[in-house]
Structure formats: C-alpha cells, structure tokens
C-alpha cells in the first residue's frame, strides 16, 4: 500500500484524511528543512506554447511548479490586491506571487506549524506574511481579501464544504477564488455542487491533467535524483509516489484519467 500512498489518502474518510495529512506535512517540514525544497505541487507545462516567465536563475529548478502558480494566479490581475493563499506549504508559491505579481499584501496560511516556521525562515519578502491556520476555520476577518488562491491543497481537507464557505466569508463582494487541485474523476460533480451551493459564479473550469502530467514527465529526472539524495530507507518508495515521479501511482492515474486535475476561476 505504501507505493499507492497518495491515492489511498485521497479516498480515506474525511476525519482520518485530515489527521493523516497534517501528520505527514508536519513530519516532512521538520525532517527535511532544506532550503531547496520550497514547492510541493506537481507543476504545469503547456501542451502548446511554453509559458514565458522571467524568473531568477536560481529559481529555474522550480520552473514547472512556478508555472502552475503563474497559470492559476494570473487568471485575474493581482496588482495592489489583498491576496491570501490557503495551504501555502513551504511558502514558494506565496513568495512567487508577492514578488512577481505585485499584490498589495500577501498572506500564506497553512495547517502545519512546522511549514509556517520554515516559510517564515526562508521567505523574507516585504508585504508577505505566513500564519498558522485551519482551512476550515480561516483566522481572517469577514470580507478582508480580494483574492484567495488554493493550489493542490484541498484534497487534504476534512470538509471541502466548510473550506469553501470560509473562502466565501473572507472574500470581499466580487472577490475571486483561484483554485487548482486533483480529484478522483467521479468526484468532480460533487466539487461543482460545493462551489455552486456556496454561491460562487464559475467563470472558468478547465481540465489541466495533461499539462500537469507534462510537467511531471519533464521534471522526473531532477525530482527522482533530489529525493534519492535527500531521503533514505523505507520512505523512498512512498515519497516517490507522493512526489509523482514516472511510474508512481499518482502519475499513472493522472495519465489514464482515473484522477483528474482541474483549474477553476470563481467569483463571489
């Protein structure tokens, strides 16, 4: 079962899923505090024209993961907006958004205290803050954000309905919810209903599984070498699956359509 760890976590009960993911991310943040690992998404690589993003040379190793953040977050203009990322992980995405897309303020929120500690240590950017918080009970005032970003995080939550209601509460009228994540294919109708029931207008719904798999394929060799060098012992196989290297269960199921990856642009 360890080699199918990601798919297993997607399908367990909400309460257990929430507890297991929290323990996993707390462990990874504490066990592997390497500054070179600041993104945890599967990435994005266009099937057509490459995305031309002018990033610093030292960020090239993270290009595919940055491209996913860029694709999701540039769906609306973030300049001078108050932006929140829920599920900020190791902080790379929030840092990219603040430095390159120029929101007025940027807050990263994560359930893992170790991840918040890591992010505050490694991402010192004016106007960017990281705070500990629960996606299902966001520590933010009503109508305090213009845009909420959520990238490849919601599959960890116990209740998607509670999370989406919290997003609606925190967004100002007319605010945007920029969402990207994976689900078993049979769960997309349920996801659509959750957004609709919370009162969101769907401006865009796009299947990007192919683009995510393209990034997995392009980044395979580097990612495999990175984890092989960093991780020792029994954790190698489950973390390879978690990382989405070629041949992993998550790579296979995204490729064959059993798991799908969608990008939504929603408006309150």
UniProtKB/TrEMBL annotation:
Classification via SUPFAM superfamilies: S-adenosyl-L-methionine-dependent methyltransferases (SSF53335)
Domain of life: Bacteria
Methyltransferase type domain: residues covered: 84-179
MF terms in GO: S-adenosylmethionine-dependent methyltransferase activity
One Pfam assignment: Methyltransf_11
Name of the protein in question: Methyltransferase type 11 domain-containing protein
Coiled-coil positions: none
Residues passing through the membrane, by range: none
The organism of origin for this protein: Aquimarina atlantica
